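COMPLEX REQUEST
Ligand: NAP
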Amino acid sequence: MAEPLRLGIAGLGTVGTGVVKIIQKHADVLSKRAGRPLKIVCVSARDRTKNRDIDISDYDWEEDAVAMASRDDIDTVVEMIGGSEGLAKELAEKSLQSGKNIVTANKALLAHHGFELAKLAEDNGASIGYEAAVAGGIPIIKAMREGFAGNDMTAVYGILNGTCNYMLTQMRETGGDFNDILKEAQEAGYAEADPTFDIDGIDAGHKLALLSAIAFGTKPDFDSLKIKGIRQITSTDIEYAEEFGYRIKLLGIARNEGGKLMQVLEPCVVPVSNPLGVIEDVYNAVYVACDSLETPLLTGKGAGEGPTASAVMSDIIDQARGLKIPTFGIPANDLKDPEWTDLGQTSSRYYLRLAVLDKPGVIADISAILRDQHISIEGLVQRGRDPGQEVPIVLTTHETKHADMLKACELFKGLDTVVDEPCLMRIEELE
Ligand SMILES: NC(=O)c1ccc[n+]([C@@H]2O[C@H](COP(=O)([O-])OP(=O)(O)OC[C@H]3O[C@@H](n4cnc5c(N)ncnc54)[C@H](OP(=O)(O)O)[C@@H]3O)[C@@H](O)[C@H]2O)c1
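STATUS: Structure written out below.
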């Protein structure tokens, strides 16, 4: 029998314990698939006394997870702690420096430090597995780094945050408002007590930065990514979008536009007839435009113990087999700095909702602004209430330059009949 792959598991929370359970439950078949046994040598977490529903009595306990990086009896460090800085970063750096492979589910770490870590891995003959960092239940890193490696990938579209997709689905199905649905999602365990990372788009932005790096051979650049979350979406938007034949999705978009990169993470309006339009609840989906393939859309659950630990296992097995693939698909030294498009110059169709006071002349004022900004209306809905009351005006546009839409929104805010921030979303049809 070949020598075992010796593992140190740092972090025994949702994902870390899930990994231990799988290794304990499927030891025989895993060793056949990996070509060698998988052996957990040591584990680490904050609180040694916590009941974790797993038997860890056979493993060494490390009070300081970073000590794993210098142990001679470990080949792979499985970093399941989280966070872009601090312990997780130190553990990853020191493990790679000492030539150990790492497996991580930590998108924040890689979105912020992916290039430096990729270089460190290559300089020390090590590898980084991070299948679990993006849409856990979908093997998208493997698909893009290996399965689609023969293609020119020209665009990536993703529904990358299950919490947001669940909330948008619930808002549509129940007519509930954002804050009520958020509370329900927290009670059901689909949203964290502090939901900021999810609903403000940061979590999905981290994932998009990683997919974009693989697709375009660029250094992951989270800091330049334009991000908008779903806080501004109301049940009125969901209802009107439905009326126009659309659904609202928090979409990550990375697109090659004439050699420059367009990258945004924001709520978009997607036709129900589109494959991404029907991805609901906690499901994630990623669509990659490839020149030799037709619409490869992959979908599955993006989070939770099972899907995430399953993705971690696929990396561990790859490492046991000796597979070494550059972190972002090409050698780190060949990764380019992304060259960004001027977002203002990109064009799209748009959905726009204005909250206005129902007074004579309001439509004329809005139309004049649209005309002056060269914006052509495709459809418009306004339902009257009693004169003088607040009503939504919802319209969709033909193809319009982004800068013109932003300018129009600024001008709308100057009208005394417009009573709230305009809600503007791209209508995305995919390539
Ligand atoms: N949960 C998911 O569905 C999911 C999905 C995709 C990716 N991920 C990623 O997976 C990683 C882990 O997530 P998780 O949900 O498993 O987190 P978690 O449940 O909060 O677990 C974190 C673990 O790290 C340990 N830890 C925290 N600070 C530590 C310290 N200073 N020293 C030693 N151990 C420390 C904790 O110890 P104690 O248990 O003793 O407190 C806990 O065992 C994160 O990068 C996350 O983004 C998670």
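REMARKS: Residues 19 and 313 are 7 Å apart (CA to CA). The chain has three domains: 5-137+308-329, 140-301, 343-427.
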